Amino acid sequence: MSAVGLLIFVAIAGAFICAKSRSAGGAVAFSLLALVLFIATPVGQGLPSAIGSFLTAIDSAATPALTGDPHQAGVGG
């Protein structure tokens, strides 16, 4: 498991090299590889649930503005 940090570093370096050479597909592929490797580590295992709770908070804040009447949405008087 200690080699995962080195693999993440290599993936980030690969993404940087691809971005500098204007190879968007390679940069995206290396970035996704680094993200998957990070989520596989114990530190990154909480990332999916953190993103999910963040998006839930945004959804609950935006729903009244999108579906409610103007008084609920906070516009008008």
Helix content: over 70%
Radius of gyration: 20 Å
Q: Which descriptor suits the 3D outline?
A: elongated
Give the mean pLDDT: 79
Strand content: under 5%
- Oligomer type: single chain
From the helix content, strand content and strand pairing, which structural class follows? mainly alpha
Number of H/I helices: 4
Largest sheet: none
Number of β-strand runs? 0
Low-confidence stretches: none
**Secondary-structure element string:** HHHH
| Through-space gap between termini | 59 Å
Q: Would you kindly provide a written description of the structure presented here, covering whatever features stand out?
A:
With 77 residues, the protein is an all-alpha fold. Helices cover 78% and strands 0% of the residues. The protein is elongated, with a radius of gyration of 20 Å.
